[in-house]
Each structure stands twice: as C-alpha cells, then as structure tokens.
C-alpha cells in the first residue's frame, strides 16, 4: 500500500503509473528498440551489498504463445541455453487486471557472481475487430545480486503490484492504426496527418483509437494516489 515514502511515477507515453519506494529513480524512458520491442522505462534502486537492483519494463507485440504456462516452459528452455548455472526457483500464474500473468524467479551466474531475477509477464489479449486479436506482453524484468535478493524482491513485488493503467487504457506508441476516421470517445474526426492514439482498453478488452485531447484528460490517465497523503 502506498505510503508517504513512495514516489509517484507516471509514464505519459504508455499511460501507466507506478509507486516507487524512496531511493528508486528513473534511468531512462521510452526507448524505441527494434519493433516489436519497446522499453517504456528502466528504474534503479539504492546501492545494496554489491550492486543496485533494477527493473526494466518491456512491451512486445505477439511473437509467441499468450498462454502463461506454455510461455514459462519456452522461456525456461531459452534461459537454460543463455545463462550459466541456471536454476529455476519458482513459477506461478496470477491475474493482473483480470489478465493472466506469468511469474518466474530464477538464479544464474555471470562474471560478477550469482544473480537473481524476477520475471513477470502480463498477457494483454484484446480484440481489434470480430475476426482479429492483438497480443501484447507487458513484462517486468527485475534483477539483483543473490546476496541482497530478499530485500530487493520485496521492493520488486511492491512496484509490480502498484501498477496502474489509465482509464483509456495502455497506449501503444509504436502502433499506427490505419483507416480510423474518428475518436472513439468524442467522435471528433481525425484530420490528415493526425495520428490516432492506439490504446488497449482494459474495460472493453478491445483495441481502440482516441485523439490527443481525450488521451490527455485527467480522468483518462492514472491517478496520483499519493497526492492526498
């Protein structure tokens, strides 16, 4: 639960917010990698015994299964190939905003010693129309040194569980919607050269398009739950 020691972080590009513990800070925002990968934010925590913990949020369009159990089986096979002395510590499935999410904790070794990672992927699967769906994996990659994992994992889970999505939905800055004539919220026609905002609307489970004015309305953005504390 948020306290006076939390920091409200808002990512306007993707329309989500997090509650960060004191001492955590943003390293970079809105890194456009090679499609379909996008990194809305990387945050880093205070110096621990050997290192600073960090969380990178990555969004990925499609590119695999949207079944959490199948995803974790595939990910485990890949991790065993990539990481030295890989050990899977746990894997579970939970719902976030009524969408399934895969939670994996694992340990591996690199040149600096043993590392521990919490990898959480939320599978947003929504309808584009009656015959097409869109799949987005919203992923938290949380990593730290094994010696300080107990403390850092507490912060990891608090940050993940603090995730808020604005009422309009998750904005997809890499996606351009073709053939959309007007804003779904206000019916205002889009002019030539105007780019509709593609949003995954969590309430309707659909991909929608809205104008900048509707996107930027306070009621369509995440709420700063700390403002009244």
Kindly report the spatial arrangement of strands forming the biggest sheet.
3-4-5-9-8-7-6
Please provide the count of β strands: 13
| Rg over C-alpha atoms, rounded to the nearest angstrom | 19 Å
Poorly predicted ranges:
none
The average pLDDT is 92
Structural overview:
The protein is mainly β and 229 residues long. It contains 3 helices and 13 strands, in the order βββββαββββαββββα. It folds into 2 domains: 161 residues, Mog1/PsbP, alpha/beta/alpha sandwich (Protein Transport Mog1p, Chain A); 50 residues. Helices cover 14% and strands 44% of the residues.
SSE topology sketch:
Elements: E1 7-11, E2 16-20, E3 25-32, E4 37-44, E5 54-61, H1 68-82, E6 84-96, E7 99-110, E8 113-127, E9 133-145, H2 149-161, E10 164-165, E11 170-171, E12 197-201, E13 206-210, H3 212-215
Antiparallel strand pairs: 1-2, 2-10, 3-4, 4-5, 5-9, 6-7, 7-8, 8-9, 11-12, 12-13
């Amino acid at each position: 639960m948020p306290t006076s020691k939390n920091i409200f972080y808002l990512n306007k590009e993707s329309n989500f917010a997090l509650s960060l513990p004191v001492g955590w800070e943003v390293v970079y925002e809105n890194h456009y990698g090679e499609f379909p990968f996008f990194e809305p934010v990387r945050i880093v925590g205070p110096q621990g015994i050997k290192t600073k913990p960090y969380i990178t949020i990555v969004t990925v369009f499609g590119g695999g299964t949207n079944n959490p159990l199948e995803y974790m089986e595939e990910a485990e096979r890949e991790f065993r190939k990539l990481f030295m002395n890989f050990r899977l510590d746990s894997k579970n499935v939970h719902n976030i905003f009524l969408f399934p999410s895969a939670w994996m904790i694992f340990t591996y070794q690199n040149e600096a010693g043993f590392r521990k990672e919490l990898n959480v992927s939320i599978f947003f699967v929504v309808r584009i129309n009656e015959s097409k769906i869109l799949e987005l994996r919203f992923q938290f990659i949380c990593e730290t040194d094994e010696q300080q994992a107990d403390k850092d994992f507490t912060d990891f889970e608090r940050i993940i569980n603090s995730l808020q999505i604005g009422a309009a939905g998750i904005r997809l800055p890499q996606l351009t919607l073709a053939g959309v004539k007007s804003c779904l919220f206000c019916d205002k026609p889009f002019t030539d050269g105007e780019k509709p905002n593609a949003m995954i609307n969590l309430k309707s489970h659909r991909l929608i398009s809205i104008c900048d004015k509707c996107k930027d309305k306070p009621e369509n953005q995440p709420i700063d739950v700390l403002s009244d504390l």
